[in-house]
Design a protein that fits this description.
Elements lengths: L2 E5 L2 E4 L4 E8 L8 E6 L6 E6 L5 E3 L7 E6 L4 E6 L8 E7 L9 E2 L3 E6 L1
Parallel strand pairs: 2-11
Antiparallel strand pairs: 1-3, 3-8, 4-5, 4-9, 5-6, 7-8, 9-10, 9-11
């Protein structure tokens, strides 16, 4: 059973940077996709980007060039490195993962809040 715990959220000014971490326990290996999603106040959760089962990393257009996803295999930590943050990046960020062999993003952490002020 996979457990995901996010950390690293906070408040920054526009143009600033943050690194979000997600500790992954119960990870079974490379046959699981994982990624970051976010939910703005009142909106549905949207995908930021993720790592597919083949290791390919993809991003939504709004994230390209500013947000970078990586995975520390030795420590099972998923990272979201965010730079040049904008007020519209204000949201709760969630780490999510799929079941082994699927990419259904059925597992989620509780989220960490990121607030960007202008």
């Amino acid at each position: 059973h996979l457990q995901l715990v996010e950390s690293g959220g906070g408040s920054v000014q526009a143009g600033g940077s943050l690194i979000l971490s997600c500790a992954v326990s119960g990870y079974t290996g490379s046959d699981q996709c994982m990624g970051w999603f976010r939910s703005k106040l009142g909106d549905q959760r949207e995908r930021v980007g993720g790592i597919a089962r083949d290791g390919q990393i993809t991003y939504r257009d709004f994230a390209k060039g500013r947000l970078t996803i990586s995975f520390d295999n030795g420590n099972n930590i998923l990272y979201l490195n965010m730079s040049n943050l904008k007020p519209e990046d204000t949201a709760t960020y969630y780490c999510m993962a799929g079941r082994p062999g699927l990419c259904d993003y059925s597992y989620t952490g509780l989220g960490t809040q990121v607030t960007v002020s202008s």
